[in-house]
Design goal:
By secondary structure, this protein is α+β, with helices and mostly antiparallel strands. The protein contains eight helices and eight strands; from the N terminus they run βααααααααβββββββ.
Amino acid sequence: MAEDRSNGSSDSKVIAVPQRRRTPLPFIIIAILFVVVPFLTWYLTWFGRPLTDDDIEKYLNDERNVRHVQQALTQIEERMEKGDASVKRWYPKIVALSGSSVTEIRKTTAWVMGQDNKVEEFHAALWNLLEDPQPIVRRNAAVQLVRFQDESGREELRATLQPYDVPAPTSGTISVLAAGGNITENALIARITNDQNQVQELRSPLPGKITNVAAREGSKINA
C-alpha cells in the first residue's frame, strides 16, 4: 500500500459540469499541496534550457521522445504564467496531447491547461482527465480544475489524503519492498514470479511512502 504524496482525446468538447458544492478551503489547500510540491520538485530538476518557438513546435510533434514533448509543454506553461499570448497558437495541440497514450504526457498537459482558466477547451479536457486510469493524471487534473472554480475533482483531492492501494496484477510468488520506505513515481515496489517462472514487475503509480504490505516476502499471492 503506498500513501500518496503527489502532486494528458485529441478532439476537445464542452461538457456540462455538474452543480458545484463548496469544499472547505483548508481541505483544498492541504490536498493541493500533496500534489503540487512533488510535481514542482520533478519539474524544476528536469527542464531548464530555453527553447525557441521552432524548437517548441518541433518538440510538441515528437511524441516518440516523451522528454521533448514534456520540455515543450513546460516552457509553454512558463510563458502562459507571464501572460505571453503568442503561446495560444499551441492550445489545440495541448488539448490533443491530453489524449496521448503516454501517462507522462497526459499528466503534464493536465498541469499546463490549468494555467489559462478562460479556455473552455482546457476545462473540458481536464474534466475528461478526471476519468484517467492513472491516479497521477487524475490528481493533476483535479488540482487544475480548482483554477476554473470547478470542484468536480473534490473526491480525487480527498483521495490524496488517504493511502493508495496498489493491487497485484498477476498471481505468483512475490518479492516486495518492506513497509516504511519512501518511493518515487514508477519506482519498483515488487516482483511477482508466476508458475512458468516468468517475472512481472509492479511499480508505484504515485510517489509516497509504503505504509503497509499485505503479503510477506516469498509468499504466494492471487491477482
